[in-house]
Request: fold
Amino acid sequence: LGSGSRMLENREEELTTVRVQDPRVQNEGSWNSYVDYKIFLHTNSKAFTAKTSCVRRRYREFVWLRRQLQKNAGLVPVPDLPGKSTFFVGSTDEFIEKRRQGLQQFLEKVVQNVVLLSDSRLHLFLQSQLSVPEIEACVQGQGSQTVTEAILHYAMSNCGWAQ
Reply:
């Protein structure tokens, strides 16, 4: 083996797999029912604190995330979310599945973008179960933990696997 091929072996390609799965209707039958989705992340990227994580998020949290990324990304275009359809023709299951696919495509594009990847809100969204106000407080340094601590605390607590 020449020295050229040894160089390649050491430089492992960075891979990030993000899956949006297992949509669940919460508060079913009540006026405030909603669907949340499991977000599973597996990566060897140095950009992420935890190499695997699993959280549940709902659509409106994705809407918040996209708005924040847009605010901080300057001229970098942020991928679109699937639409918020109130007049959906077809079954609810079909709608939920279409939305799930759209949310997954959104996250896949976001984690491929270096500028968006540098936003700590994205990391807390994907790797902690903090609520939106808690993420904001943490990013602004008003939480009890730093961004890294919040992610590591969640990773250590194994909440990500209990669900």
